[in-house]
Every structure is written in C-alpha cells, then in structure tokens.
Design goal:
single chain; 237 residues; Ribosomal Protein L22, Chain A; five-stranded mixed sheet; 11 strands; 36% helix; 24% strand; globular
Length: 237
C-alpha cells in the first residue's frame, strides 16, 4: 500500500532548484484569500480561461493552482510575475525560462511540482461507483493488468498506475496519447523519448493518490503544505 509523505508547512524557505519541490493545497483553507488576490495577479489569458469553466469548483481549482504557482515562482526566482503571460509548450504545458513546473487538481486538492528538470504530476480521487475493470484493456499492458488483478487493493493499484502514466506523459510533454497500453509504469525508472524518468507514487491523505515523474537521476523530494500565512508573506514581500 502507498503511504503519505511528511508535509512540512512552507514558510518561505530558500529553495534550491537542483532539488524537487512538491506543494499541496487544501483549497477550502485558502479560498477567501485566493478570491481577494487572483484578479490582480493572474494574466489576462488565465482570467479568460477561468471564466470558461462550467462548474464553479473547477474554476476555483484552476485559479488556485495558477495563483499559487505564480507566487512560488516569484519567490524562487526573486522576480514579479504579476499579470505576466506564461509561455506554453505545443501541448499546452505552461513554462518559464530556467524553471519547470506542473500542477494537478482533483476534488479539494491542488498539487504543484517545481524544479529545473522536466517534471509532471497527477492526482486522482477514488470513485467507488466507477467500474475500472471496463477500461483496463484499453489503458494498461498485460503485465500491468495482472499486477492490478493480483492485488488485494485493486482500486488503489489502478489509480496508482493511472497517475503514473499521466505524470510521465506530462513530464515528457506528450500529453495523453492514443495507445496508453504501450507504456508500462510498473518500474521506478522509465525510459521514454531517449531519457530516464523517475516515478514516485504516494497518498496525499487517507484516500487520494498522486504520482510524480522527474527527468534524470534520483533526487531529493521536498514536500510542503501551503497554508494561508504563505499568501500574507507573499503580499508583504
């Protein structure tokens, strides 16, 4: 079974871009302050995109993820990104010179990963009314399917492998591909597009599962929790 890492409260520590940083936000804890800040910090295109979400919950997750990503990058690079447009890869992945970041959100959580390497992250919530067996043969290799079926925790194994594939394809910049069965993510190190990617999976609470993919050799993972004081410190910087 997966375990949850130890989340340290982020207090504006000096960060080393040679390492990997994963930040977790529980959105209901920061909703009020995010709503007071986002219009003056997000770019015009981000504000336009936010208005296109059909459901308020999805809009809130998008705004929170983009706002906190900007504040973290400002802190790490000691510069202002207020209203500045990000560049994007051909697959729509946001990027900033000298820095790689990726985010994922599901339910009430947002996860952000930042480094100077190519990185990807994905989070999923178990849905007990979803029969995952109906998608196994279209999503996983035979080896992966056998791994899931032999487990005492099949739903957890399914979500773990799914998030590992999502994180890997985000890190490579490919996005979701047509033939997911062609990629096996059972190993800790995966060769893809001529490079090695390290994949780690973990829980972010008792039920929700996340995975990260990182290009290159193994490196220290630093896991932080973002709480309301983080925003106040950013405002006062």
């Amino acid at each position: 079974m997966l375990t949850e890492p130890s989340w340290k409260t982020f207090e504006h520590e000096v960060l080393n871009l040679e390492e990997i940083y994963i930040f977790k936000l529980f959105v209901p804890e920061v909703t009020l302050i995010v709503n007071n800040l986002f219009e003056e910090i997000l770019s015009k295109s981000e504000l336009v995109k936010a208005e296109k979400f059909r459901f308020p919950k999805d809009k809130e997750l998008f705004i929170t993820g983009r706002l906190v990503s900007r504040l973290l990058i400002e802190h790490m690079l000691n510069l202002s990104l207020k209203c500045r447009e990000f560049d994007f890869t051909k697959r729509g992945k946001p990027m900033y010179p000298g820095l790689e970041f990726n985010l994922s959100h599901s339910g009430k959580y947002v996860l952000i990963i930042i480094s100077n390497r190519s990185v990807g992250i994905d989070i999923e919530i178990p849905e007990t009314n979803f029969d995952f067996s109906t998608v196994l043969e279209h999503t996983f290799s035979l080896e992966e399917i056998n791994y899931i079926k032999k487990s005492d925790y099949r739903r957890e194994c399914f979500l773990t492998l799914w998030t590992r594939k999502e994180a890997l394809l985000k890190a490579t910049g490919e996005g979701l591909i047509d033939d997911l069965t062609s990629i096996s993510v059972l190993d800790h190190t995966i060769k893809r597009m001529g490079s090695n990617y390290i994949i780690n999976s973990f829980k972010i609470n008792d039920t929700d599962i996340a995975s990260v993919a990182i290009k290159g050799a193994p490196v220290k993972l630093n896991t932080f929790n973002i709480l309301p004081p983080f925003f106040h410190a950013c405002i006062n910087e």
